[in-house]
Amino acid sequence: MTVSLVGAGPGDPGLLTRRGAELLAVADVVVYDRLIARELLDLAPAGAELIDVGKGPGQSGRQAEINALLVTHGRSGRRVVRLKGGDPFVFGRGGEEAEACRSAGVEVEVVPGVSSAFAAPAAAGIPVTHRNVSTSVTVVTGHAGDPSMLGVDWEALGRLDGTLVILMGMGARAAIAERLVAAGREATVPVAVVHWGTTDRQQVVRTDLAHLADVDLPAPAAIVVGAVAGLDVTGAVDAAVGGGGDG
Ligand SMILES: C[S@@+](CC[C@H](N)C(=O)[O-])C[C@H]1O[C@@H](n2cnc3c(N)ncnc32)[C@H](O)[C@@H]1O
To answer: Which of 40, 76, 80, 110 has the fewest CB atoms within 10 Å, measured from its CB?
Structure first.
């Protein structure tokens, strides 16, 4: 009676952990998300039941159904892998799923994953805490509809000097840039937007805070704000918008 919450990593199937692969290889049921690499499902046994619970934007109400599904399958005694994008506990609602299972008497194992919050910048050649450039990195949600965003203190973040990584922020990027600048962050501070980082669909746009609103990339994307966003220590290919970037 164990449900394993497994981090699938940011998109490159090679970034699944070994423990995650071991659990998938013996899974009876795999309950998976929208952003996971589909190749990972091939690691499950041929007879495994594969259940797509991918939520599109605005479908967060389905979380209760997902929790109930995990409890039902967990109670049935089958080996359940809950495969979640990135790390299950980084804006993934994995904590709620674990709580739902535990309160129903179903054991939970968590297998951490490589979070896009760090992997997407890395794939664009951005070391988020590059020595002598940034001594901190803060990860926040930029999703305007996300209840947890209500708690984001953009004014305080605008006064910080370190690296800011914003997930789910493309929809609200204009407002976010405006609030950060109003709070004191310089409009010329470098910004990188990394779309589908680590995958063969990766696109990187370099700009600055003043021009973040002009970046036209769809989700999933990670927005990196701070001096490190101007770095490309691995020579990743990218494009520039407005004032920032070097092409
Ligand atoms: C619901 S959050 C889940 C985050 C996930 N738990 C993690 O640790 O990466 C989804 C958001 O993560 C970011 N994201 C996920 N995969 C990404 C990728 N490959 N490249 C850039 N951003 C990504 C995007 O901001 C996306 O909207």
So the answer is: 76
